[in-house]
What we know:
alpha+beta, 4-stranded antiparallel beta sheet, 16% helix
Amino acid sequence: MKNIIWTISVLFFSLPAFAQTMSMVDMLNIPSVRDGQISPDGRSILFVRSDASWTHNLNISTIWHATIDGKESWQMTAGPSSTTAPRWSPDGNKLLFLSKRAEDEFTQIYVMNVNGGEALRLTAHDTNISSAEWANGGRDIFFLADDNKPSEQIEREKVKDDIYKFEQDYQQKHLWKIELDTGKETRITQGDFSIMDYSISQDGALILHNRQ
């Protein structure tokens, strides 16, 4: 019994010598994982991993591919620009993601083969894109995009006028569609409201959306 008490005492008083409190830098260096997407065949997943980049002084998000059992994982995208929102094509052969790369003024849709290779920029939209989803068997992609800024607001921003006029400076967000074969973009909704989220039927004929 005395030996047990002595052993516990030694371990207790030895803890501070080995324990180390995590610093803010340690915490920032811990990667975060989000937006997991199961493949159509159920065998693998796509997810977004964010890592601190001290060189660029920001968090950079990359897309990773992993087997469903978690035994293997590999990085799909790289570089100084973040890549987010991966979505499997219906046949599981391609994925789309969002990124604002060096040549992009705004966030665009990119498509790449699941087996790797260079990503192809699909859109050249003149505002930021979000919430991209495959539709119509992979022939179309729907997405949300901000309305264009009025010329008056653009001029104010050029001269660094930081007065924010909420009703004038707020850009509504609307639903668009792009055809993969032709690259043709079509605006689906318009008006003095924003599409907050949406869901599309498998054939792309019906759209359920929430607006405000």
